[in-house]
Amino acid sequence: MQIYTDSEFIFSSEYWTNAETLNDDQPFTSDLDIKYAAFNTKPFRKIRVCVDSPDTNCFEHEFDTVYSSARALFNAGYIRDTSLNQNGILNAFNPTPGTYADCGMQRPGFNIECNDGNKARIGYCGNCPGQPCQLSDSDDADYAIGVGLTGQITGSQAAGWTGKLTSCLETNKVDKRVWVSVMKLTVSARRGAKSEAKIMQLLVLLLF
After folding, report:
1. Helix (H) / strand (E) containing 60
2. How confident is the model at residue 28 (pLDDT cuts 50, 70, 90)?
3. Which residues sit opposite 113 in a β-bridge?
4. Interatomic CA distance for residues 61 and 45, integer angstroms
5. Dihedrals phi, psi of 89, to nearest 5 degrees
6. What is the pLDDT of residue 183?
7. Which of 57, 115, 119, 146: CA 20 to 30 A from 78?
8. How far is 119 from 122, CA to CA, in rounded Å?
9. Contact call for residues 173 and 157 (beta carbons, < 8 A)
């Protein structure tokens, strides 16, 4: 397996939806792509994505329902969620402010498949600078930003943003190192109460 690449957790990777693990005997700080067994078993309501660091520079998202596992979430099909934290995503992935269109999110959420071949397991799509903001699910899309990506120009990648985020002529993608984790649920949380503030690491993506 290739190390230090963005080829493992692309949008179409079966690791998102199957029970197979990857390097799960390694610590989450290892320079490897990792998928732990907890990905298949741990229920959660809140998910966290950290960029360039395992516990800082993060954004979080809390669901209205408890998912039985991360694998269940990524097997659930398109989940539109307009409460996804756009500012948190932009701050974490850190494209240069002023280089991208100041628009809202197109098809925000999970397991998204936008027009023109742009996709993300976590994230949203949008239009390149100079084009009008188009936020309907049926609108044209130029790029995707987030985790588990496919771009219309730049193809598959694991995390970051695809080509055309910062220019309509851009053909280069930007890859990021990302950690995805969830909040572990207490027994009461499984019955609808709040989750305790303890992070369970589910998978680690090492990208460059």
Report:
1. strand 58-67
2. confident
3. 119
4. 8
5. -65, -45
6. 86
7. 57
8. 9
9. yes
